[in-house]
User: What shape does this take?
Amino acid sequence: MFRIDLKSRKAIYEQVVDNFKEMIISGILKPDEKVPSVRELAKELTINPNTIQKAYRELESRGYFYSVSGLGNFVAAPSDKQDNSARINELKDTLKTALNELMYLECPKEEIMEILKDTALMREGETER
Amino acid sequence: MFRIDLKSRKAIYEQVVDNFKEMIISGILKPDEKVPSVRELAKELTINPNTIQKAYRELESRGYFYSVSGLGNFVAAPSDKQDNSARINELKDTLKTALNELMYLECPKEEIMEILKDTALMREGETER
DNA sequence: TAACTGTACTATAACACGTAGTACGGTTTG
DNA sequence: CAAACCGTACTACGTGTTATAGTACAGTTA
Assistant: This one.
């Protein structure tokens, strides 16, 4: 499914959360799709089930998963997401800070524009959804 | 100078690092300007001198500070910065991830464009430096 | 009933963070 | 030179987080 970097400073459960978020955002995982059980994924990644459980609980509280007792955890539909305004503001701030630092480090504007294009943000004549 | 949020999950020394980086990037602190001594800033922020020292060491290793023994720490000039390619790649990745999540959360494109304009990235007819 | 699933605990070890205190070398000023 | 700054290095301690280990219990499916 994905890999964990044990040498990373980032906590394992956070790496699990980030990996799932990315797969959901990019559409690799579809709404209502079942994700591996806590024990199964723990076995596959050779880490403790409790660590996976913590990640899943986090993903559920952020609206990316929903869980059914006895059945498993599933990918939530985008419309099921709760209030995003706080998270959006966080991301905007992240964006500002990263852009400012990139400019300070004299990263060519063209390289930044390239990234913007890749996110479907800059394409003209396109409407979302 | 700035404030520290003791209740934040972010480590104090990281908050100090981020605050200085922001002040340097935004031009509030000029090259070769002297920053408060370790003991002085620790006193002002009511935290331990060792925590400030850790932040200053970090800032020096990243090329934002240079230190002169017996004199103090100073803001480094942008040209003094060492190899940035690794950091630039990190920032590009941060950018991509944040943009993708913003799109997923259905943040209006206009709000994102607003941020881009604020970073002097999107202004036409302007040349850097 | 058996074999899955999620969930909730407790306990332990390892590590990072922040604090406290001490020490030493360099620079400036009187 | 001596005092008062400066940066820097080091040890030690308390605390919180992370990850692990083990156990237990409820819901679902075959």
Observations:
- The helical segments of chain B are 12-25, 38-45, 49-61, 85-104, 109-118.
